[in-house]
Amino acid sequence: MKKKIVIAKAGGQAREAIVVSLGGSLVAPDSIDIEFLKKFKQSLQKFLNSKGFIIFVGGGKIARVYQRALAEFGAKDKGKDLIGIAVSRLNAEVVKNIFGKTAHKEMIANPSKNQFGSKKIRNKIIFGSGWKPGWSTDYVSVLSAKANGIKTIINLTNVDYVYDKNPKEFSDAKPIEKISWKDFRKIVGNKWIPGLSMPFDPRASRIAQKLKIKVAIINGKNLERLEDFLNNKPFIGTVIQ
Question: Structurally, how many domains does the chain consist of?
Fold first, then answer.
């Protein structure tokens, strides 16, 4: 039997554990967004009495800049993925450190396993990043949710909704508030390539559908929407399940 990460208890009750896939373009659109990180910390701190968070931080726009540069010199997908993972780890270290002692001191080494064994995690937030070539941070978020029996993933990104088609290309694209995994996967397809910018990774979507995981797509530039979701209130964004 797999052991689960045990989040520190509040008032004798186990905390609800939620996985967050935090888009790297929110952390560092061009340079580190200090104001976003301050607000992100403030938002999560409001919920630490009742919830624990496992947060995977992506590489975002900066990773794609490096990947395009490598492509000019003939890098294959594996090489581009490795540089993306390196940027993701750097972003994750930055975010982890702003939470100070609230964050577990070690980054998740293997998202498909409980690296902490049977000991309780006294800290309330655990951080991870990209892991292997071919695996996005959305994908490792799903692996972590599977390993720890978690049924909710929040994908903090820089779009308001999932749309029926790319809103950057089609002015008549329609926002979607709720969608099944079957219908969502028709939109995003099945193929993952390094630097792919999608609401949620196609390969991660396939596993999330199988595990019946709920994913909330929320624009991290408006963190009150995240707070609404965590408070079980109506929120602006998309639920996939």
Answer: 1
pLDDT tens digits along 168-184: 788 898 999 999 999 99
**1 located within any domain:** no
Rounded to whole angstroms, the Cα distance separating 105 from 90 reads 15
Contact between 188 and 202 (Cβ < 8 Å): yes
| CATH number, residue 158 | 3.40.1160.10
Q: What is the pTM of this model?
A: 0.88
Beta bridge partners of residue 152, listed in sequence order: 214
Cα 167 → chain centroid: 22
CA angle 55, 61, 67 (to 5 degrees): 110
- SS3 label, residue 113: coil
pLDDT tens for 18-45 read 999 999 999 999 889 999 999 999 999 9
Residue environment code for 56-67, b if the CB has 16+ CB neighbours within 10 A, otherwise e: bbbbbbbbbebb
Distance (Å, whole) CA 199 – CA 173: 14
